[in-house]
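PROTEIN DESIGN WORKSHEET
SECTION A - STRUCTURE
LENGTH: 654
TOKENS:
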């Protein structure tokens, strides 16, 4: 027993057991801590990678918005670098394409303007163009090292009821040294909505009307913005009146019906009403618009063939649009003794040919084709004949294919097929000078005055067909989206419609007119004029040339006196408030009681009333969802929505 107690009392080896136990405990603790550190490190690495993927998606947004700042209609004619392959959509409903077309375009290429598109999720082109940017890590911040983005774009759409651009950008991590996404790293996607304001959002943009003897006396269907006062004299307003810079909406006459009558939901924003900054965050100045003319020229120079038209020897360029989607440009010269191209009709045609033999002293020169392009009176050159003689023939009237004089006859005999020209030496250029499809970037520029449309049918049928009967038989018909910029004036010489006015054409055409100086309705325009466009007179006036210049005579007798009616559908922005439509004594210009200025933003449907000159005006909505290419964006792009979405999100088609 004593021996057993001594054995039990011995403590030999306990220290070793304790050490072994502690080592085991510490090993478990170390392994646990190492696992936690490793997990935390992995989570941090994954978070860093996920954040980098998100930043790649953000880079896609930033790059695309930058493109929109340079070219507001970029989406309509370019498939951007990094954009998924577009597929045309011929039939769609509720934002879903139900019939895909045959057109497919990879990123970095041109797109056919006005063509509806989608990104076919059932095909291999869904998120197929992952883009890392260009340049190098030192010189270009758009280069993404090891990451890339893919874009999908939805344009403004009347069928979807959206007036903004939707950008869906997805980011991914690329496999090491490759161009495909690493499937072990989740993608991240961002959707943003980009909206913008342009002058085409306002039925009128005017300078300060304080002290100007001009006022709005007819219906105002859209928004009106002024950098100062807005003068009214019996107007009914259906859109907001916005007087900036501490301006006011002021009545120029007295009496209950002389001011302005507001129709809900129209409101006045001026110094005595709600703050204009609630609806216009920053003051708009006409200086903001001036960049548009240089942008149009720059874009037009990129077209092939170029759509920059510049010849300092000319009086103007005549520009016409045809229902087949083409434009034409003619060189126009000023007949001797005439003045401004808005005052006296210039000559934009070509030479004619004598139709039969002409004896010496003859007082009639018959030609083979129409004399429509020639002035009603003037001079022509006939010849040379077999004796190398060219005669000047001054005519006092003309017929469909003849020139007639009541004065001295022609000096020498001439034979059939000899030249007849308005210019000594003949017209030595192509007539028309250039014709082609409206360019995909929608830019046409003239360094000299631009004359749009024509008061009568142009030989060749360029301006007949494509417009409703109420517009007129001779009219420019715009089939596409285009802006014409002129470094001088833009002269409206004839009727202008959009092909979308003819059912069942879609509401996808738009025309912009940007003049560095004035927008004139010419003295020789039709006495019943109908035209449609979004217009800007950057440094001048907008109105009837005769009235504004206080002239009452036309050397050809076409426009003197009081014309019957003028209907304008669209928007007018102008730097000078001096333009007018009827003379103060009512003797010339356009009868103010028959002047209709209609909005083109869908508001006519709400009002529900159309003038007799425009029975289909309630369907007009060209500017509600579109704006002309290269129109200046006011106060930059607005991001109205910025949200992360599921990676399988697809934008709607419309």
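SECTION B - SEQUENCE
RESIDUE ASSIGNMENT:
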């Amino acid at each position: 027993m004593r021996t057993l107690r001594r054995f039990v009392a011995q403590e030999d080896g306990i220290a070793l057991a304790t050490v072994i136990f502690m080592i085991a405990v510490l090993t478990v603790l170390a392994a646990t801590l190492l696992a936690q550190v490793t997990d935390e490190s992995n989570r941090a690495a994954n978070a860093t990678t996920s954040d980098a993927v998100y930043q790649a998606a953000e880079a896609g947004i930033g790059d695309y918005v930058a493109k929109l700042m340079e070219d507001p209609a970029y989406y309509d004619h370019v498939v951007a670098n990094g954009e998924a392959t577009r597929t045309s959509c011929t039939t769609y409903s509720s934002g879903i394409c139900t019939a895909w077309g045959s057109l497919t375009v990879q990123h970095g290429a041109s797109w056919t303007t006005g063509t509806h598109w989608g990104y076919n999720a059932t095909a291999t082109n869904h998120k197929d163009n992952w883009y890392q940017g260009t340049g190098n890590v030192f010189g270009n911040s758009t280069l993404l090292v090891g990451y890339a983005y893919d874009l999908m774009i939805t344009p403004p759409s009347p069928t979807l009821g959206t007036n903004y651009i939707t950008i869906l950008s997805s980011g991914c991590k690329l496999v090491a040294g490759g161009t495909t996404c690493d499937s072990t790293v989740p993608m991240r996607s961002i959707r943003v909505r980009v909206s913008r304001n342009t002058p085409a959002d306002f039925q009128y943009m005017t300078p300060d009307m304080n002290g100007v003897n001009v006022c709005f006396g007819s219906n105002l269907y859209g928004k009106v913005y002024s950098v100062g006062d807005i003068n009214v004299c019996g107007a009914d307003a259906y859109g907001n009146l916005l007087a900036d810079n501490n301006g006011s909406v002021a009545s120029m006459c007295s009496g209950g019906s002389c001011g302005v009558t507001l129709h809900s939901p129209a409101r006045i924003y001026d110094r005595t009403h709600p703050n204009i900054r609630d609806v216009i965050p920053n003051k708009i100045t006409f200086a903001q618009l001036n960049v548009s003319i240089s942008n149009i020229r720059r874009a037009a120079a990129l077209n092939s063939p170029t759509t920059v038209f510049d010849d300092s020897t000319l009086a103007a360029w005549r520009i016409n649009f045809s229902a087949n989607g083409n434009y034409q440009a003619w060189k126009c010269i000023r007949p001797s003794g005439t003045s401004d191209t808005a005052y006296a009709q210039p000559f934009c045609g070509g030479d004619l040919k004598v139709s039969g033999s002409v004896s010496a002293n003859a007082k009639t020169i018959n030609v083979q084709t129409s004399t429509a392009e020639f002035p009603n009176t003037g001079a022509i050159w006939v010849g040379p004949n077999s004796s190398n003689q060219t005669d000047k023939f001054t005519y006092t009237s003309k017929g469909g294919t003849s020139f007639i004089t009541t004065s001295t006859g022609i000096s020498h005999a001439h034979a059939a097929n000899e030249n007849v020209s308005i210019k000594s030496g003949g017209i030595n250029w192509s007539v028309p000078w250039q014709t082609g499809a409206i360019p995909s970037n929608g830019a046409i520029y003239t360094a000299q005055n631009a004359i749009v449309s024509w008061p009568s049918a142009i030989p060749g049928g360029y301006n007949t067909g494509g417009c409703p009967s109420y517009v007129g038989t001779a009219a420019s018909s715009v089939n596409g989206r285009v802006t014409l910029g002129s470094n001088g004036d833009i002269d409206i010489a004839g009727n202008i419609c959009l092909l979308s006015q003819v059912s069942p054409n879609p509401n996808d055409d738009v025309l912009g007119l940007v003049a560095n100086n004035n927008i004139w309705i010419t003295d020789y325009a039709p006495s019943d004029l109908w035209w449609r466009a979004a217009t800007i007179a950057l440094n001048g006036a907008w109105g009837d040339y005769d009235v504004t210049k206080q002239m009452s005579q036309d050397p050809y007798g076409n426009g003197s006196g009081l014309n019957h009616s003028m209907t304008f559908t669209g928007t007018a922005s102008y730097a000078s408030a001096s333009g007018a439509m009827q003379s103060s004594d009512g003797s010339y210009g356009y009868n103010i009681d028959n002047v209709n200025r209609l909005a083109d933003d869908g508001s006519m449907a709400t009002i529900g009333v159309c003038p007799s000159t425009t029975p289909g005006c309630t369907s007009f909505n060209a500017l509600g969802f579109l704006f002309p290419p290269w129109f200046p964006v006011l106060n930059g792009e607005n991001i109205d929505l910025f949200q992360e979405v599921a990676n399988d999100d697809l934008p709607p088609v419309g």
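SECTION C - NOTES
The chain has four domains: 2-43, 44-198+638-645, 286-344+429-594, 351-426.
The first strand starts at residue 78 and ends at 79.
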